[in-house]
Amino acid sequence: MRILFIIFTLSLSLNVAAQMQIEKTSYDFGDLYENATTYVDFTFKNIGQSKTYLLTIDKPREVNYIFSSKTIQPDSTLILRLKINDQIKGRFNYTIDVYFSNSNKPTTLSLSGNVKQKSGNPMTACPDFSASPPKNGLAHFDVTIKVIDSITREPIRRSKVYLINNGTMIGVYYTNSNGFIHENVPLGLYYITAEKTPYNSNYHEGYLNYQSNYVEIRLSKGTIDQIDPIEEPNEVASNNTIIIQEEEVEDPPTITIVEEQEEAPEEIVEAPSTPLDSNDFNSSLFVPNNIVFIVDVSASMNQMGKMDLLKLSMIELVKILRVQDKVSLIAYSGSVRVLLEFESGDHKDDIIVQVKSLDAGGYTAGGEAIKEGIRLAKKGYIEGGNNLVFMVTDGAFNKGSKDYIRNISSTYKSKGIQFSVVGVKTLDYLTNHLTSISEKGGGSYIRILSVEDAQNKLLDEVKRTSLKTD
User: What kind of fold does domain 18-115 have according to CATH?
Assistant: First the structure.
């Protein structure tokens, strides 16, 4: 009889303890910098048949709390908000015991993290429930960016910092006297660049969220070669044929072969900038545009912020287009895909959605993409208008037709359709080749190396070529 009573008591105890259900029992804040969120919610649900009471909370002095209620009815929840003291630098690992009336044993919670920088806000009290802590997928959160000298580690004040998210300029900011920027931004994948004379610009690329909310960018002086050595081609043949080994991707590695040039241009001249007001794009000054974009989305474009610069450049142009301007968009990597065909310039949102959808991966099939681009340019040809093909890439082409140069040249001579190459962070040794291709198509080689280039060069080229001359 005594054994049966013990078993019954133990069974009852287990059932009562199981009455409270919790979604998580631990939380890692990660590295915490100024403006970081330092509180988290734990939710308890009463899944039993009787009401339960919150009795007491045993916690270290570095943790403060509030709770939504002391009584938890059946099928109801209690929210416990815990806040750590971010005025104490260093790693922490706190244990909090929560006691309910349904059990003699506590529910143990743990908080961990590392306070890397003390908060500028001396408040240590736990914020009330009108302030909701960020969760994955919530729109905005606080981020801290610091710009420093790469050698001295000293902060660089008044550094100009660009924040770009999927081709959209989120903002342009300047560091304070301590080299910091504190801003509230949307969650996502960011390309962040910092610049300050006489330093070379530098960048950071990666996801920002409420746990990864600190970025440090180091700026260096000296030549680019001293800072970030340029990777040279694996082999340069004696007959001036350049052979480039593609970087490893999921597909088997391929070899890029660039044809021997007939004659190298004596001087490399990039497309000139036009000092016209970008908002002044009316029909009395500019002819209609038939623009075809052939966009390289091979794996190599998914590095160094190339896709963000590409998207930013195209979006800046789309903003000024008119109803009479037409845009076609082709994406190429292992295959060639037509994403837009003769979309009117007043359908800006539709064009921008397609631009933002571009995603890099695979190898390059430039020759076939050029064929398709020229076909669309001819099909959408505007008599008396400005007919342009822009090939946007970071390098040479490693698969497809070998007669694309002849096609580019003959199309320009017969129809006046200009073919230009937009080089996104292209290396110096490709300049002669890409310039030569552009010249054969009556166009320009437009090299985009920075955010400022992306904001202006493509837009200026369209305005320059579509400007009425009579």
Answer: Immunoglobulin-like (2.60.40)
